[in-house]
């Protein structure tokens, strides 16, 4: 099938590459010439395991084209995926300007029937706006070309996106009940047929419900995390081990084990943005989502949990102190620094006069960019951030180690060496990588999240 993907960001590139892998002829459009040049030179603008191979293979097979040519992109695909960014507005709602601009481009150039798929995470009602934008362009050209807007949200996790796409646990597709909608449904059915061979994974629904499903899924997952974080903070006070509790409740199939890990807060491009956007949608309809407001507040608070523990241990004034920080990306296997907890911790430590020695296995270039933005105009603060070449390098002469991202490389460190490199054997573990008893036995002062059973009064 002939597919066009508008936007070669995270979602667009993964979707395009995986659809090409299934044998489709995929045209990827981006208006950023540098990105297209990079892709045409064999580069990949994001860090995502396995993606480079899939793109290279399908480019070589002639199934992936990268271009900035809008007219050619519209002419190419019977199905046009809109996978451009929807950054949050100042008020938290999703900014639809790129989605609507993509829709207008399609309307401006289309001649035959097109299925227009909203792949970007967009609020309920966006398909109607996309429809109106396309129709507006068609009317100006006095064209009667037919089209249908479909919602097909993505559920990819960064770091596992190719795998998630190729082995989806569900495919959500919303079509409307018009003849054009039915035509769109048939094309979408054909496109996703390879995933439904053994059992049907597609959930067909109306467009608005499909749009809402994406937000509902992310809001539910964010709620689980904030709920566990809140319990972990209480666990710290009452001498309870949140890890034991996680296992105890996760064994109930109604609850399940996943997404119950307490930590130093969730980040990334989805949860923070989508929780806010759903709250915003609710407000537009005069509703107040009390739980989601709390989910967001707990998470903002949780990003300070390591800073708070460090202050409790070392005092308010941290000038002259140095802290090693392992892990900067918002989660492992990505270089994404959006809404990363590390940024909050680094800011707090620098504000209190400390210096930080930071290391991340992949995100160092992104971290440099993100931290330069966070501390723009504060050269003194930036000079106290030391970007290190290895985890051990970061430890040298540090008063303590703080772990912010659970990269595999941090899970089995040489504890003996760690002790000799740190000024004192103190660890603040924002992802509960180690067992408190074992750490105590090994001679460490260990501060996990919700695991202070050993220090109970
Ligand atoms: C998420 C959704 O999982 C995915 O379905 C959706 O399409 C996009 O948003 P992603 O943002 O890539 O994916 O990361 P995810 O693995 O979900 O983790 C998000 C954040 O939650 C990370 O900061 C992670 O550290 C944190 N997290 C996750 C926890 O703190 N505890 C957990 O138990 C799980």
TrEMBL record:
Keywords: NAD, Oxidoreductase
Signal peptide: none
Keyword NAD: yes
Classification via SUPFAM superfamilies: 6-phosphogluconate dehydrogenase C-terminal domain-like (SSF48179), NAD(P)-binding Rossmann-fold domains (SSF51735), UDP-glucose/GDP-mannose dehydrogenase C-terminal domain (SSF52413)
Pfam family, any one: UDPG_MGDP_dh_C
EC number: 1.1.1.22
Organism domain of life: Bacteria
Residue ranges occupied by any UDP-glucose/GDP-mannose dehydrogenase C-terminal domain in the UniProt entry: 324-436
InterPro entries: 6-PGluconate_DH-like_C_sf, NAD(P)-bd_dom_sf, UDP-Glc/GDP-Man, UDP-Glc/GDP-Man_DH_C, UDP-Glc/GDP-Man_DH_C_sf, UDP-Glc/GDP-Man_DH_dimer, UDP-Glc/GDP-Man_DH_N, UDPglc_DH_bac
Catalytic activity: UDP-alpha-D-glucose + 2 NAD(+) + H2O = UDP-alpha-D-glucuronate + 2 NADH + 3 H(+)
Pathway: Nucleotide-sugar biosynthesis; UDP-alpha-D-glucuronate biosynthesis; UDP-alpha-D-glucuronate from UDP-alpha-D-glucose: step 1/1
Similarity comment: Belongs to the UDP-glucose/GDP-mannose dehydrogenase family.
Protein name: UDP-glucose 6-dehydrogenase
Species: Actimicrobium antarcticum
